[in-house]
């Protein structure tokens, strides 16, 4: 009987906290949604916020979620397929779309500032290239980042590739949990 009363009391506290709009969290866990808040490394927050201004159609939280999904914030990451850096650019895509994000005159895939600004720039290029494709615009932009804009155009939306479909879902799910402030 005591256990039932304790459980009911705990539930009442959670409902009261939720009703008050208070986020009950401990160690980054949001118990009301049972999900983890994704903290962005402090040195990358201003870079992401600035880079996201290049492409207002892709919110800063989505750009941050892309980086978390692509490399887990590792600027030295290299994938088995040969994608490099924090934003995981393939060499030919980097050669075509990279920008000098920090204005130092060097476009460096290993420089997180350049790579993050380049990812934002590529998002905007993709937004233009898939603008007339049916379906959700943001989903199509993310799918284009992952699979290439030509695949999004070919399939008239997110292509039927499990990797790309999972990527879009993962990025959007993480974007809801990104903490940029």
SSE layout:
Layout: H1 2-19, E1 25-26, E2 29-30, E3 35-36, E4 38-39, H2 45-52, H3 60-71, H4 91-97, H5 112-129, H6 137-147, H7 149-154, H8 162-175, E5 178-179
Parallel strand pairs: 4-5
Antiparallel strand pairs: 1-2, 2-3
Description:
There is one protein chain. This protein is mostly helical and 181 residues long. The protein has two domains: 2-36, no CATH class; 39-179, Orthogonal Bundle (Lysozyme). It has helices at residues 2-19, 45-52, 60-71, 91-97, 112-129, 137-147, 149-154, 162-175; strands at 25-26, 29-30, 35-36, 38-39, 178-179. The strands form two sheets. It has a three-stranded antiparallel beta sheet, with no helix packed on it. Helix 2 (45-52) runs parallel beside helix 5.
Report the CATH architecture of the largest domain.
Answer: Orthogonal Bundle
Structure classification:
mainly alpha
* Number of discrete helical segments: 8
Integer average pLDDT: 86
CATH topology group of the largest domain: Lysozyme
| End-to-end CA span | 44 Å
Low-confidence stretches: 2-34
From the spread of the alpha carbons, the general shape counts as globular
Q: SSE string, helix = H, strand = E?
A: HEEEEHHHHHHHE
Which percent band covers the strand fraction?
Answer: 5-15%
What's the CATH class label of the largest domain?
Mainly Alpha
- Biggest β-sheet: strands ordered side by side in the sheet: 1-2-3
Helicity level: 40-55%
Short description:
This protein folds into 2 domains: 2-36, no CATH class; 39-179, Lysozyme (Orthogonal Bundle). Helices cover 52% and strands 6% of the residues. The protein has helices spanning 2-19, 45-52, 60-71, 91-97, 112-129, 137-147, 149-154, 162-175, and strands at residues 25-26, 29-30, 35-36, 38-39, 178-179.
């Amino acid at each position: 009987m005591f256990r039932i009363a304790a459980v009911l009391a705990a539930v009442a506290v959670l409902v009261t906290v939720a009703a008050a709009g208070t986020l009950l969290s401990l160690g980054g866990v949001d118990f009301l949604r049972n999900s983890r808040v994704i903290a962005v490394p402090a040195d990358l927050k201003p870079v992401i916020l600035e880079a996201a201004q290049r492409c207002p159609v892709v919110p800063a939280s989505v750009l941050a979620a892309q980086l978390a999904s692509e490399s887990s914030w590792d600027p030295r990451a290299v994938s088995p397929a040969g994608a490099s850096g924090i934003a995981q650019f393939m060499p030919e895509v980097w050669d075509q779309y990279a920008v000098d994000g920090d204005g130092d005159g060097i476009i460096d895939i290993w420089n997180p500032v350049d790579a993050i600004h380049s990812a934002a720039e590529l998002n905007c290029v993709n937004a233009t290239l898939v603008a007339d494709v049916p379906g959700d615009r943001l989903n199509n932009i993310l799918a284009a980042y992952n699979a290439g804009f030509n695949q999004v155009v070919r399939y008239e939306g997110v292509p039927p590739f499990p990797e790309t479909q999972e990527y879009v879902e993962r990025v959007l799910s993480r974007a809801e949990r990104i903490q940029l402030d």
